[in-house]
Amino acid sequence: MLRAMSPDNPVRAAVLGAGSFGTCLALLLAKRGFRVDLWARDAHVADAIARDRSNPRYLVDFTLPESVRATASLAEALDGKELVVSVVPSHAVREVWQQAHPRLADGALVVSASKGIEVGTGKLCSDVLMEVLPKEQHDRLCFLSGPSFAREIAEGRPTAVALAARRENYAIAAQSMLSSPAFRCYTNSDVIGVELGGALKNVIAIAVGVADGMESGPTSRAALITRGLAEMTRLGVAMGANPVTFLGLAGVGDLVLTCTGDLSRNRRVGLEIGRGRKVDEVLGGLRQVAEGVRTARSAHELALRLGVDMPITAGVHAMLFEGKNPLEAAIELRSRQLKSETE
Fold first, then answer.
1. Deepest in the core among 10, 18, 229, 293, taking most CB within 10 A?
2. Above pLDDT 90, what percent of the chain?
3. Is 75 helix (H, G, I), strand (E, B) or coil?
């Protein structure tokens, strides 16, 4: 268990990933009194943060305090750290942690905030981390998800998220380290549900963005969100998740925010496609990762493998990877065989 923090002996933490969410969590931890090493894969980004005290690519208008040290060295970032927050893109989790795990301090608490499903394997980030990390570390893995935009966390706007772990005592430890009056963490024992909610909502947000880009209206948006939640829950149950989890912060909470918020990258991808721009053009112009694009492929493959009906996800996959016209995809979705809402 982590020791108590004091002003004279602050907890040493690392944040792996200097994107927008990694940067905002480094700020959050610094405000909580931590000494934080922020790891950036790109040495130029680390150098710029060290020199200018701001991230040159993400949240550029926020000043990082001196208690945040940027580094491009995993060895430096992880050396002696008691808390490690992993915010690397989901497709990089395996690669980064294969390099990182030999440097992880004994007894360190690891909190993963990556959202996605590994392409090709259909594995959640929790599965990947448990494959890469030694068995004795597995209980110390926690998974953070829920309705949260990096900019709003950095601005100190009230935020509530879910924090899941296999062992409640470690979830509570992470909760106590991360929580503040403006950033409330609620513990959860359903790792699969919390992770799936954070991954799948990005796919539904692309679908909602497409509908909004086609000016289908708020009624259509509400239908997509609601039926999207239904198919997220179906896949979750098939994978062993608790369906109640999808009614909470990592489910409907994150889904509503990502489908309606102007800061949602995945919704913006859908908006541009719905307005008639070519998929390759939209994706080629992204400055930040839109996790829903890769997740659409892996979730579609997972649904087919498990025999789970996910028509919205299938439609997004068809638009992104099969060249299907958005209008055609919408008509196909609305023309499906009628059925009970509970099916």
1. 18
2. 92
3. helix
Q: Provide mean pLDDT across the span 254-265.
A: 96
Q: What is the mean pLDDT of residues 11-24?
A: 96
Token representation of residue 277: 């721009």
Q: In which element (H, E) is residue 302 found?
A: helix 291-306
* 3 state SS of 170: helix
pLDDT exceeds cutoff 50 at 249: yes
Residue 96 and residue 88 in contact, taking contact as beta carbons nearer than 8 Å: yes
pLDDT over 70 for what percent of the chain? 97
- pLDDT of 288-324, one tens digit each? 667 889 999 999 999 999 999 999 999 999 999 999 9
| Strand order, beta sheet including 35-39 | 68-71, 35-39, 12-16, 83-86, 109-112, 141-145, 159-165, 183-188
Among 201, 278, 324, 339, the active-site one is 201
Kindly write down the DSSP assignment for every residue of 113-128, as one continuous string. ----B-TTT--BHHHH
Active site residue 201: yes
